[in-house]
Write a structure and sequence with these properties.
Elements: H1 2-32
């Protein structure tokens, strides 16, 4: 159960990181007018 919970948390962290990267990429594109 502990391993399963840890795995789920890791997936959530990866999803949050992916969203942050997408937001950063969008802001950079907007700043540079791409």
């Amino acid at each position: 159960m502990w391993l399963r919970g840890k795995h789920a948390a890791a997936i959530e962290d990866n999803v949050a990181f992916g969203r942050a990267v997408e937001d950063f990429g969008a802001s950079v594109a907007a700043t540079h007018g791409a």
